[in-house]
Design goal:
This protein has 9 helices and 9 strands. By secondary structure, the protein is α+β, with helices and mostly antiparallel strands. It has 2 domains: 2-154, CBS-domain; 185-216. A 3-stranded mixed beta sheet has the order 1-2-3. The protein has a two-stranded antiparallel ribbon with strand order 4-5. Strands 6-7 form a two-stranded antiparallel sheet. A hairpin with a 2-residue loop joins strand 6 (164-170) and strand 7 (173-176). The radius of gyration is 23 Å and the shape is globular.
Length: 217
């Protein structure tokens, strides 16, 4: 049943339609400022309304910092990933997920008649009903470690049912409790849980004091 659902659902139903873009001739500094402004991790590079590449935070880290380039003079066209891997709005979510795993990418621009109409992330697909079950039927041996990590985060049934942690974020989403593997695990207990319990206890004590004073009056 779930496999049938995932193979019938189309990208146009889950894609982000308002995609932030940038031109090839812009500087990397301008790209970084645009990412910060919109709080996003990638920009689709568009030349005369035609999508020609994609620039991610990872691209900037690897090709600017690691190669000691100047962000104020380096152009987006010299850093962007190309040729651009794209999908159509009518592509099935399962096929899109398989394409992203095969090409080791986490962002998939959606193009129709040569024009950019949306963007889908691997996280979007993993949140879609039935995709995890579908991916369990295919091999992901050839994918990169960072892609496998993203998939495992959502495919672990135990993690999916654990409480959400307010301090740990992954791709804009709160991740499940990691127990004693978490940096906030102190001694034999979660520091966040301990603090929450302490605040609740103090709140109850204050309420009791207020009630007692009210009764005395």
């Amino acid at each position: 049943m779930l496999l049938g659902v995932v193979m019938s659902q189309k990208l146009r139903k889950i894609m982000i339609e308002k995609v932030v873009t940038i031109v090839p001739g812009a500087t990397v500094m301008q790209a970084a400022e645009l990412m910060n402004l919109h709080e996003i991790g990638c920009l689709v590079v568009v030349d005369q309304e035609k999508p020609v590449g994609i620039l991610t935070e990872r691209d900037m880290l690897k090709r600017i910092i690691c190669e000691s380039r100047k962000p104020t003079t380096t152009r987006v066209v010299n850093l962007m990933s190309k040729p651009l891997v794209t999908a159509s709005p009518d592509m099935r979510t399962g096929d899109a997920a398989r394409l992203m795993l095969e090409r080791n990418i986490k962002k998939l621009p959606v193009v129709e008649n040569g024009r950019l109409v949306g963007l889908v992330s691997l996280t979007d697909l993993l949140h879609s009903e039935g995709v995890i079950e579908f991916l369990n039927t295919i091999s992901i041996d050839g994918t990169s470690r960072r892609i496998k990590k993203a998939v495992s985060l959502y495919s672990d049934s135990l993690k999916q049912h654990r409480r959400k942690c307010p301090l740990m974020m992954k791709d804009g989403f709160q991740t499940g409790c990691q127990d004693n593997k978490c940096m906030w695990w102190i001694g034999d207990e979660c520091a966040v849980t301990k603090l929450s319990r302490q605040i609740s206890t103090e709140g109850l004590l204050k309420t009791d004091v207020v009630n007692e004073n009210t009764c005395e009056e």
